[in-house]
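Q: Focus on the chain.
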Amino acid sequence: MSKYYVNKFLYQVDRDPELLAAYKADPAGLVERWEDEYGRWLGAGNRVEQTTWLSFTDDERTALVEHDYTTLFELGAHFFLTLTIFIAIYNDDYEAQSGPLAFQREYAQKLSHWVGRDYPTVAL
């Protein structure tokens, strides 16, 4: 896993309203577009230097497309980045159905099997 690459995706998409809306509407399309247009550029906003060695693994791509934050966490994606991006995507829908903090409660429940265990490392 390229934790850096996955975390870069989560960070960048969460902070760009257009990318976030595209990720919610068409996850597969946005993941592919992000890799082509954003992912291989080095540095934030730097359009000078690209890398050819970064890419998602099949497991990473599948988890991103399926919004599978449990798998992303288990692969070592940073827990705060997975939480914040999926709050941005799901919070309004969950709150409308189940009240405040509904998504956060689901997130905690789906990761509850990690209680008492060492979390997957987020170190690169």
Observations:
- The helical segments are 3-14, 17-25, 27-39, 58-65, 69-75, 79-98, 102-110.
